[in-house]
Each structure stands twice: as C-alpha cells, then as structure tokens.
Write a structure and sequence with these properties.
mainly alpha
Length: 38
Amino acid sequence: MNKEEFLLSIPDSISLIDALSDVALIFTKVNIMYRKKS
C-alpha cells in the first residue's frame, strides 16, 4: 500500500469508528430504557 492509498483509507476508518460509536450510543439508550421498563 502506498502513501496516497493509505491517506485515502483514513477517512473511511474514521467514518467507520463514528458509525460504531453511534450504534453503541443507541444501544446504550435502548438498554437504559429497557431497564427502566422492567
């Protein structure tokens, strides 16, 4: 992998991390709501 390919792949990994943290945040909110109901 050359430098240009590496630099182009960085935004993809950042957006992937953002997506994963969004999913984790939603999962946590759902978990808290579910615990309050039960």
